[in-house]
Amino acid sequence: MSPPPLLLPLYLSLLLALGAAPARALTRLQELYTWRGVDFQFPNAAVRAAAIRSGAYVEGNPVPLDVDVYQGESGQRVFVTLPRLNPGTPTTLATVVEDPRAGAAYVPGGSPGSAPLLTAYPDWAWNRQGDCDALTSVFRMQVDQQCGRLWALDTGRVDILSRFELICPPKLVVFDLRGGDRVLKKHRFPDDVLQAGSLPVTVAVDVRGADRHSCGSAFAYVADVTEYGLVVYDLFNDRSWRVNHKYFYPYPTSGTFNVAGTTFDLMDGVLGLALSPALPQEGGERRLYFHSLASVRESWVSTGVLRNASLFADGANAARGLFRLSEGERPSQAAAEAMDPHGVLFFSLLARNSLNCWVAATGSPYNARSLVELDQDDRALQFASGVKVVTGRDGAPEVWMLTSRFQRLMGSGLDPTDFNFRVLRAPVRLLVKGTKCDQRRGGVEAPQRPSYGQGHRPGSGSWREAVRKYW
C-alpha cells in the first residue's frame, strides 16, 4: 500500500529515520582503476591473435587478485597478480600500463577510474604456462620498498577452480626492481615443506633491519591456505621450513560466506598475513598477525619464534603455547590484511563490503567494539582480495586495495557488463583521521562508524546523527 501523495515527504523522512536510507558510496577511498574485464598489451597484434586462437587468452577469464606498488627513481609501478583460476590467462604477474590518472592528485571518494591495459612482468617469456623455470600461477606478491625487490609466490597450479592441477613445483621468486628486474633468488619449496594439496597464496616479507645493508637478512612467511600451514623462508641461508598449528585451520562455523547476496561454502585456512613494526617491548621483534579465511578470529605470533627452525623440526611444534588467539571476534570473515608503520591493521569485512581498521599497537582487544569502519560501498568493495600498505609518491603510507568480486566465481560467474575489478587507494592519514585508528595523535574520541556491538546498527538514527556532525 502506497502512502497518499501529500504524506509522501513525511513517509520518506520516517524511512530515513528508521535507517532505510540508500547504500553509502565511497567517502575516503578513491577508485583508481576499474575493469569489466582486463585486457593486455601484447607485443603486437599478431601475438594477441595467436594467443586467442590457441586458447592462451580467453577474454573475460583472467581475474586480477592482488595489487602492490613500487616507488622507483623512474616513477611509480603498479603490479597486479592474475592466478590461473581458469584457462585463458596469458600472464600471471603483470604491471599496469601507466595511465595519467595514476599520477593524479588523490580525490576522496574519487570518480570511477580508467581501465588500463596490463602487460606481463618481467616479460612474456617469464609467464609461459608449462615452463617450470618461469611463473605458473601467482595469487599474491609483496613489494619490498626498502630493498627494491618484488617477491612473487608461485603456486605451480593451473585451472585452480576446476582441475586444481599441479604442473610445476611451487616456488618463491625475488626480482630486483632497481636492477633491471633481474632475478635475485628462486627458491623451490622442498617436498617436506609443502604437501600434496598445498596452495601457497600469501607472502609477507620481513627485512631484519631498517637500512639497505639489512637486505640480505630477510625472511618470508607464506600461507598455505588448503593444507593449513605456514612456511618460513630464510633468504640468507636459502632454506625453508613448515610450521603447523591449529590456528591455521578453518573454523567450521565460519565456512559459509554471504558476500553481496551470493552465498557459498569455502573451508579455506590461513590466508591473511600482516607484519607489525618492530616492537621495543618485545626486544625489537615483530609480530605476524594472521587469520584463516573461514574464521572470525585474529591470531598472532612473534617472528622470533617463527625464525627458530629448530622449534618445528620433523613436523613438530615446540612453541604451540606462544601462538595467540583473539578472545573477541570480528562481525564477519576477512581475506587480505596489511599493517601500517604505526601498528594499525587494515582489512575488509567481506559481509559488509567495507574497509576497517584495528589498533594492534596499543594492545586494544580484538573484538567488534574495537573495530572502526573507514569506508563502505556495496558496489565498489565486494571481496577485497588484495590489501596493502604501500609507500606513496610523497613517501607517506597509503592503503591500496584490489576488489575482485571473487564470490561470483563461486556462484553464477562474473557479469561481463558490470565493473568486476577495481583498484582503490587512500593516504593512511586521511583514512584514519578523526578515528581511534589515528595513532599519530594517539587516537581521538570522535564518533566512529559504525560502532559494532554497541547497540547501534548502520543506518540507525543516533549513529547517522553522529556521523553527520563528524563529517
From TrEMBL:
It comes from the Eukaryota. Gene3D superfamilies: TolB, C-terminal domain. It is found in: Secreted. InterPro entries: 6-blade_b-propeller_TolB-like, MRJP/yellow-related. Residues 1-25 form the signal peptide. Belongs to the major royal jelly protein family. This is Protein yellow. It comes from Gryllus longicercus.
